[in-house]
Amino acid sequence: MTLKSVFAGLAAVFAVSLAVAASPVTARAQIQVDIDKGAVKPLPIAVPAFSGAQRGAEIAQVITGNLERSGLFQPLNVSAVPDKLQDVNVQPRFPDWQATGAQALINGQVTVGPDGGLRVDFRLWDVFSQQQLLGLQFSSTPDNWRRVAHKISDAVYERLTGEKGYFDTRVAFVAESGPKLARVKRLAIMDQDGANPQYLTDGSYIVMTPRFSSTSQELTYMALRPNGSSIYLLNLETSRQETVGKFPGMVFAPRFSPDGAKVAFSVEKAGNSDIYVMDLRSRATTRITTDPAIDTSPSFSPDGGKIVFNSDRGGQAQLYVMNADGSGVRRISYGGGRYTTPVWSPRGDFIAFTKQTGGEFHIGVMRPDGSDERLLTTSYLDEGPTWAPNGRVLMFFREGTSGNPRLWTVDITGRILRPAAYGGAGSDPAWSPLLD
Predict the structure, then answer these.
(1) CATH superfamily label, 170-431
(2) Are 113 and 9 spatial neighbours (Cβ–Cβ below 8 Å)?
(3) What pLDDT sits at residue 180?
(4) Residue numbers of the chain with a pLDDT score lower than 70
(5) Between the CA of residue 433 and those of 15, 124, 167, 352, what are the distances in Å?
(6) DSSP state, residue 27
(7) How far apart are CA 252 and CA 9, in angstroms?
């Protein structure tokens, strides 16, 4: 199986048009979810099956799942509502929907064109003001109906929260199976809601720390074999795979620069690890740390001008920020415990990290200057945060005493914590940017 076949269908063109507003006041939302409040009460929302010939019920189910997992919405059971919404261009019978307690309503219609293409129209309504908040149309091939559902979810999320959505994305991770002392670790990829999981390596060697490029079309990851480690680049469109040079010692923890032109990684020799940056066009490699300590886990700032990393140069692992050329190193974490696996938010406002204190692990965030540190999770083992592209949600992996890691998500307030949709054992997640 080739990666090209895995990603067949992602190149479909989506045509989007804004529906005509019912009245001038529809340009302003009458309801909105305030995601920065001290406590968020999920917004009751109705998402009945879309009418039409194909996939209407499935599209509504995907939208329902996306919104519910965000923790900001409470989808309602509306199967008994008398209004069946057969025509998206006909205004709903609002008293029927008001009786359910729904504050927002999504109704849609699916049609198939003469060429077999899928067209999905939907409307978002404020149930109590009886006003349309949003109307869009998406066109695609029938096999891309799930992406249409994710795009609708993103549009609704943004309209009601004021923040970009994150549903039309994918997650690369390490799928794990087998006993703890003989674990099989395969590179895998799936939709963010756990659908369409695919294995990209055969399990004959250990893979670690997959990371997306800014275009979502390339992955870098570490492969560990009995004869040593290598860093690979994997093109998801062409299935082409290549190594990032030859280095004496162990190479690990790769990550792309924001423009995708460089990869930062660590090289360990004789117990000392330093950070290197490779220009992927020229393959020129520059060593940017020279401290006789363990420097690792580099992550670029969104503008590419700085790198955060962890180092034990101060006695135990702490977080440091430096310029992208290695100059201007400064420590930003000063709390008790060990700080590792830092990753800069896509918005640039936070750095996420793993923290170990005593016998517990945490996922936390802090500002790039080290201020406003918050611990979002606590468990036996939480590790490896990755940001959703909107910078509001993190995915990480959690392992209990049983030894089977699972993927989890948490928002930056720490209030919305739940298992990810993928049901198998997995670690080292990496969230893609929004797909084109």
Answers:
(1) TolB, C-terminal domain (2.120.10.30)
(2) no
(3) 82
(4) 1-30, 36-39
(5) 20, 25, 10, 17
(6) G
(7) 32
